[in-house]
Amino acid sequence: MRSIKNWVAFVLLLAPATPAEEKRISVYSPQTSYSLPVLEREGRDYVGLLEVLEPLGNVGAIPDGKKWKLRFNQADAEFTDGKTRAKVRGRDLNLTAPFRLENGRGLVPSSSLSALLAQITASSNISFHEAARRLFVGNVSVRYTVELSKGPPPQLTLTFTSAVNPTVATEPGKVHLTFTREPLQAGSTTSTTFDDKSITALSYLENNGTAELLVTTSVPLLASFRNEGRTVTLSPAPQGQRQPGAAAVPSTTPSSGTTSTGTASATGPGAYHRYFAIVDATHGGSDRGAALSATLAEKDINLAFAHRLAKEFESKGVSALVLRDSDAAITLEQRAALINNSHPVIYIAIHSTSSGAGVHVYSALLPAGPDARGPFRPWETAQAPFLKLSQAAAGSIAAELQRHDIPAKVLAAPLAPLHHVTAPAIALEIAPTSGDVNDLSSATYQDAVATAVAATLLASRGQLENAR
Amino acid sequence: MIPRHLQIAFVVLLGAVLGLSGYLWYWKRHAPPPRVTESAHVAPPVVGPTETVTLYVAYDDPGMLVARGASIPLPSDRQERAQQVLRALFAAYQESSSPHPIAAGSEIRNVYLVDGVAVIDANTAFADGHRSGILVEELTVLSLVHTLATSVPGISRVKILVDGKERETLAGHADLTGFYDVGNVEQVVNQIKAAQ
Questions:
Q1: Do the beta carbons of residue B182 and residue B149 sit within 8 Å?
Q2: DSSP strand E in A258-318: where?
Q3: Which of residues 71 through 110 in chain B touch A, CB cutoff 8 A?
């Protein structure tokens, strides 16, 4: 299946109706997307404020009697159990329902999140789709355009502003494309009807922390992904592939190019604790990394390879999160916090270079730092308890790459955020094999490296998981 | 009627004004260009006997450190000695045939020694002009730390500043926020040596 370029489809039987879902809220930010459970208290929706803020920056909270003091980056906030009035950055803020302190955990009404986050982060760029429980922090959105070509056969083309990875499900006469991690927002209209007998309508819906595109159809459809996951096309399935009684034929992840983070269906956005690997596309935004050539920036190669490696993990049935899924700037401290909050089995930082040959595999070169005190680990040397496992993983990867005739070297490097990571952590610096910098963009070379890395880490999965 | 002596004085003064204007115009056109002030830091001449020190010079290809002897005048003061050793290392990297070139204008501004801690203060040209990459940056850091620790005994930790300030990374990769443990650096140097 991997050999089929830019096009894949899986013929599945009719998907069952969606089971009863727990209430969730999704948060989309430039750094990452995630979802959290919503708790019902006295008929109102509440969320844990600490959990909402954790992936967005440095946050800590201390319960003090009935009070709950929170610090996010440089901002202080104070809440009182049972009271609607809170103090954020020295200013009063009225919540829509009383703050709740439950076993040291601070719960706020979800309907207050927009105002609360705007004041805590001192940002006006916060948007909350309250009915659908979708919170947009910063300038994040994925838009789409729709085009129906009548054919024959008719073909519905959905073009997105960035790569998407929807879960596809079917029921008689309908195909649901559900977007859990993508900050998908409606186009100019939420509903479009087509003058076609096979594909009759497309609707945009939002519900329970997800966005959905619903295609109404009278024939089984085949979905395919192109343009590195930015284009989804739906067209009638060939007669031989139609299932009796099935109204539509769903497709899963795109076969090539980049995928969005996480797997399509097994893990939703809130499942980041379950990731086997976090693959970090290092640099990003104005930090272009090394200039590999006059036109090629390190950040772009890193992102492409990170997606390839994540997909390789997913094809082997394990989940992987690509840290930095777009051209966003994320600081080293933010990366470390995101990794440590997600508790992955392994962290892999991706770098690329135009000098040298093959792949350099690094573990952390720990700086001089204070000793651990009891359960507290110094930030500078948080990697220390995991270093031997990281070194072993680096050694195994290099050996596997060499077995596939890819030159590989193992080293320790003073490279942040490796030494802050509380999990086995390695970095790959990918250099051309032949001295030609264009090797770095080669799908064949990237595939060969990704396959060797994923196979090695999965072979030592048990040992790595024990480190947790 | 203007008296004759006033007419003569007016003509003389007018002649003088025109003459001086012409003189100024001539010198403006033919004056030598202004002297350019050299902004580069000029180190005072070093006083001391010439000694042979070992510089651990980085080679980009194949990514290793090579011990190279260098004869340089070394003062007796430990701190000045540390500065001279690292300046000799930078001079080696700025030769045209350098196996690990660093930016033109790169300088060691100072080296401070306090107990077992050494603080290397390099200039902005060094960091801003450094090539970006894990290995290429790491080789520079290892070369500096290992050369310094070998030439000046008693150093256990090394911190690298740029223009007197802490910098997050050298050129996007090598972390400069912490202190380098000389023992850990030595292990990596040996690891590189063993891998050759």
A1: yes
A2: 277-281
A3: none
* Lookup: tokens for A288: 């272009």
Could you give the C-alpha distances from A437 to A398, A441, B117, in angstroms and in order?
Answer: 21, 8, 41
- Residues 427 through 446 of chain A touching chain B, CB cutoff 8 Å: 427, 429
CA-to-CA distance for A394 and A397, rounded, in angstroms? 5
Dist. CA B71–CA B62, nearest whole Å: 26
CA nearest neighbour of A428 among A443, A448, A445, A450: A450
> What is the separation of C-alpha A370 from the centre of its chain, rounded to a whole number of angstroms?
34
List B residues 136-175 in contact with A (Cβ-Cβ < 8 A). 136, 138, 141, 156-157, 168-169, 172-175
Task: Report the candidate in A182, A178, A209, A207 with the shortest Cα–Cα distance to residue A25.
Answer: A209
Residue B189, chain A, CB below 8 Å: the answer is no
Look up the ipTM and state it: 0.76
Structure tokens at A351: 């770098």
Taking only the tens place, the pLDDT of each residue in B131-165 is 999 999 999 999 999 999 999 999 999 999 999 99
- Inter-chain contact B136–A353, Cβ cutoff 8 Å? yes
Beta-bridge partner residues of A60: A71
Cα separation, B116 vs B155, whole angstroms: 4
Note the helical H segments in chain B.
4-30, 78-93, 124-128, 134-151, 182-195
d(CA A54, CA A50): 6
CB B131 within 8 A of CB B123: no
Cis status of the peptide bond prior to A250, with omega within 30 of 0: no
Amino acid at residue number A69: K
pLDDT digits (tens, 9 = 90+) for A382-438: 999 999 999 999 999 999 999 999 999 999 999 999 999 999 999 999 999 888 888
Instruction: Report helix, strand or coil for A385.
Output: helix
CB contact under 8 A, B133 and A290: yes
Q: What is the pTM of this model?
A: 0.56
